[in-house]
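hey so i finally got around to running the thing on that chain from the lab meeting. sorry it took forever, my laptop kept dying and i had to restart like 3 times. anyway pasting the input first so we r on the same page abt which one it is
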Amino acid sequence: MKAVQLNTRIADESDLKDIWEWRNDVKTRKMFLTASKVSFDEHQKWYSEILSRKSSYLYIGIINAKDKIGVCRFDLGESCEEATISININPKYRGRGFCCLMLLSAIDSFQKERHLNLRANIKKENKASIKCFQKCGFNLISENEHQLLFERFFVVSP
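ok and heres what got predicted. didnt touch it at all, straight out
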């Protein structure tokens, strides 16, 4: 099997349409906490706000220097002591083992900028995300009827 090189980079305007298409994928919408379809105009407005917001970080996963495999977003909490993380894999790359690679790469990129604990809210039926986040060192800290809350502490390397 050919080795895959995965990197992350900060998202930019060139990623607008891809992220919108991935967001509106039927399976993606089922797993998102907000499942409604998003118009391109709504997405464009949201995307512009996210790119300009100092409290949000958006990373694109790239394999083999050209193929976009997904997006990972970090939103700082009000106290700026933690960040909430979300991930969405490009539908054509789902089920191919990229989720954990993408998540770890994005976390590494983010934590070079901000040394914060991370949280993730995941729908209970999103088994793939639950498995991925657990594999990447997140622990379940609470749950309600519909979702689970996971946390991963920032660890300083010796």
